[in-house]
Amino acid sequence: MSAAEKVAAQFRELYGTAPEGVWAAPGRVNLIGEYTDFNDGFVMPLALPHTAVAAVARRTDGLLRVHSAEADTASGQGIVQLDTAGLRPGSDTGWAAYPAGVVWALREAGHPVTGADVHLSSTVPTGAGLSSSAALEVVTALALDELYGLGLPAPELALLAQRAENAFVGVPCGVMDQMASACCTDGHVLHLDTRDLTRRQVPFDLPAHGLRLLVVDTRVKHALGDGAYAERRAGCEAGARELGVRTLREIPYELLPEALGRLGDPTVRACVRHVVSDNHRVERTMELLDAGDVRAVGPVLTEGHASLRDDLRVSCPELDLVVSAAVAAGALGARMTGGGFGGSAVVLTEADAADTVAAAVEEAFAAQGHPAPRIFPAVPSAGARRVL
Predict the structure, then answer these.
(1) Which of 19, 68, 217, 286 has its CA 20 to 30 A from that of 371?
(2) If 0-12 CB within 10 Å is exposed, 13-18 middle and 19+ buried, where does residue 218 land?
(3) How many Cβ atoms sit within 10 Å of the Cβ of residue 336?
(4) In angstroms, rounded to a whole number, what is the distance separating the alpha carbons of residues 134 and 374?
(5) CA 113 to CA 234: how far, in whole Å?
(6) Is residue 383 within 8 Å of residue 161, measured between CB atoms?
(7) Beta partners for 217?
């Protein structure tokens, strides 16, 4: 039985009828470009094979019923029932806020969503910086779009999912996670200009170059809703105001020294330095991939980690240990990925050295008394789609 068939069978057990379809949306890992998306900058994510899967059927009575296999297993929480007309930002703070927020955002945008029965199951690790929440949002949006015949393109679904997370859940994230889940394609990284949502699928065939990209989940749980992410965003916005621009995207890398000289607050200055330089790192990475010089991407990743660690101060000892241990063991480069304060790192390595690098990271964690990390290859995978 496939994962989609299993979720459909669970839906029938829960709700007593068959779903109208089953959809999947992936988590993502970001190769380069962090804290740039809400600054109208550049990012370069790829979709993972790990997905949130949703079996869904329409309702006409205004009720939204949602169930999560993982939440049920962890806490014994059964079906969560909500009134679509009564959905309000902040009205639900549990996992159900993500699909409920999508229904709210669709209805706020004028789309006639009259309710649904939803059963969700996800293999995207939670709290690992791999966009488990965006996967839940995007899979819900895609299912409801198809069932209600809304005809919304993938980027618009991503924007609605982002609105759900920003306004309903209360996390001021940029659009990268939702766009990656909705729009990535198999075998590619997505070069995304978050200012106008211009997208380019960049081939990323690491096996052809004898390379591998590893994801190292430190198992340190991060939560973007705890205020630290919002503080960094506020620092970026303060920098843009002081420099007289709408967003930091408007500061050219060549003019960064002059811009930094105009800023008095060291925290704001550090935010500006990171964002402008990370935008430049995304562009350098795309140029290297286009030139076929994939190995040269490694040092760019490590440089990006130093910026996130020292300027934004969003790393943690475990993430720093992944990077130092991996590079010392021969990896081409590594960096934390996602919002930080825990979560995951990416490591670019020669394929024949991947096991050695992974073992070195595991040994470093054991020596420091940390729980063993979870390490797996990042395989560029397809974005959201119907699976049954």
Answers:
(1) 68
(2) buried
(3) 30
(4) 21
(5) 34
(6) no
(7) 344, 374
Quick one: average pLDDT of 39-56? 98
Of the CA atoms within 13 Å of residue 207, those in its CB half-sphere come to 5
Q: Tell me what percent of the chain is helix, strand and coil, each rounded to the nearest 5.
A: 50, 20, 30
**Selection from 45, 85, 293 nearest residue 174 by Cα:** 45
**Pairwise CA distance, residues 358 & 387, whole Å:** 33
Pick the catalytic residue from 92, 117, 177, 311: 177
Is the separation of the CB atoms in 378 and 372 below 8 Å? no
Among residues 109, 85, 209, the alpha carbon closest in space to that of 167 is found at 109
User: Residue length, the chain?
Assistant: 388
Non-local CB neighbours of 217 within 8 Å, separated by 6+ positions: 125, 128, 130, 343, 344, 373, 374, 375, 376
pLDDT computed for residue 230 by the predictor: 86
Nearest Cα residue to 172 out of 362, 339, 4, 356: 339
Q: What is the pLDDT of residues 59-96, one digit of tens each?
A: 999 999 999 999 876 566 789 999 999 999 988 668 99
State how far the Cα of 362 lies from the Cα of 371, in Å rounded to an integer.
Answer: 9
| pLDDT at residue 226 in the model | 62
CA distance 227 to 223: 9
User: In the annotation, is 72 catalytic?
Assistant: no
Strand partners, 48: none
pTM of the model: 0.94
Contact 202, 44 (CB under 8 A): yes
| Token representation of residue 21 | 């379809």
Work out the pLDDT band at 221, boundaries 50, 70, 90.
confident
Strand partners, 120: 54, 68
Q: What is the pLDDT of residues 325-344, one digit of tens each?
A: 999 999 999 999 998 999 99
